[in-house]
Specification:
Bound molecules: nicotinamide-adenine-dinucleotide
Shape: globular
CATH superfamily: NAD(P)-binding Rossmann-like Domain
Helix content: 40-55%
CATH class: Alpha Beta
Number of helices: 10
Radius of gyration: 20 Å
CATH topology: Rossmann fold
Number of domains: 1
Strand order of the largest sheet: 3-2-1-4-5-6-7-8
Distance between the termini: 26 Å
Number of strands: 8
């Protein structure tokens, strides 16, 4: 699927990103394996995770190059794309997968936790995408694959920073898809469900949380990679501006927000009329106030 292509995968030292890098290489791509190698909350750095993924690709007869930059640093992000061009001569797909978590209930969320998560996820996706754009425009092709989350698409407790970043990434992807369509460049998002270091930090105190984590443990990170390979390939030439989700062997397509109910009052709305007429008509269609992804995906994937 990817013979002759060059892809850059951020956060490819562990979890979902590592599986994507391995499968891209198996499908013939040359892979820039980016990973800062920090802790789950984004502290520190370690060359080992990226090095291990590169070694495994080389051992299987593939082509790979390690890059240890942080995507949150614009110069570091640019070095990922430069590495692709210098080592392998071009760049065909950017997979914005790197991520950290700094979960905290809203009233305890600090400025630092907010900034760190927005920096890696949102600014990181912007930085790497921006660096690849001149190459994509020049060659009149390219595929951006960004990682979002049901925490952003649906909502989650204790993740205001992460949810905001992940939904903003959908906005980024949609605008890139619209702006770059005339240059033949595509942009899509994937919301994965996978057992990884990231999901390993989910608290398991209540029975509900225990059940959720048991479910997640059965969803292995490698299940996300086939969709990425497809979206990076020419087989998906017509696919852009979409949001997918992957849970084990199940792949879903998300709809974009659309008006669910509308009501017009010819003389204009007053607050009283909104309370008396509009809300009674709308409230049967309200999303539940405590909605999280378990309500939208109430069954186990196979
Ligand atoms: P993970 O923690 O296993 O791997 C993330 C990798 O990103 C790590 O190896 C880490 O070192 C790297 N990284 C972190 N900050 C970086 C930076 N600044 N620059 C470069 N590399 C950096 O996580 P994962 O579960 O594999 O998650 C991958 C992506 O999928 C993330 O974007 C995450 O938000 C998203 N996601 C995962 C799940 C899930 O169930 N695992 C659910 C929804 C979304």
């Amino acid at each position: 699927m990817l013979a002759g292509k060059v892809v850059a995968v951020t956060g490819a030292g562990r979890g979902v990103g590592r599986e994507i890098a391995l499968l891209c290489a198996r499908h013939g791509a040359s892979v820039v394996v980016n990973d800062l190698g920090g802790s789950g909350t984004g502290d520190g750095a370690d060359a080992e995770p990226a090095r291990r993924t590169v070694e495994d690709i080389l051992a299987a007869g593939g082509r790979a190059h390690a890059n240890l930059a942080s995507v949150a640093d614009p110069r570091g992000a640019a070095s990922i794309i430069e590495a692709a061009v210098q080592q392998f001569g071009r760049i065909d797909a950017v997979i914005n997968n790197a991520g950290i978590l700094r979960d905290a209930i809203w009233h305890r969320m600090s400025q630092e936790d907010w900034r760190a998560v927005i920096d890696v996820h949102l600014h990181g996706s912007f930085n790497v995408s921006k660096a690849a754009t001149p190459y994509f425009r020049e060659q009149r092709s390219g595929s951006f694959i960004h990682f979002t989350s049901t925490s952003g698409l649906i909502g989650n407790i204790g993740q205001a920073n992460y949810s905001a970043a992940k939904l903003a990434i959908v906005g980024l992807s949609q605008s890139i898809a619209l702006d770059m369509a005339r240059a033949g460049v595509r942009s899509n998002c994937i919301a994965p469900f996978a057992w990884s270091r990231m999901t390993g930090s989910i608290p398991v105190e209540t029975e509900d949380q225990k059940r959720r984590v048991e479910r997640l443990k059965s969803m292995s990170a490698d299940k996300v990679a086939p969709l990425v390979v497809y979206l990076a390939s020419d087989a998906s030439k017509e696919v852009t501006n979409q949001v997918f989700a992957v849970r084990k062997n199940e792949i879903s397509l998300f709809c974009k927000p659309r008006p669910l109910r509308s009501m017009t009052k010819l003389e204009g709305w007053t607050p009283e009329a909104i309370a008396a007429e509009l809300i009674p008509s709308f409230s049967p269609s309200f999303a539940r106030a405590d909605e999280v992804s378990a309500h939208v995906f109430p069954y186990d994937p196979i």
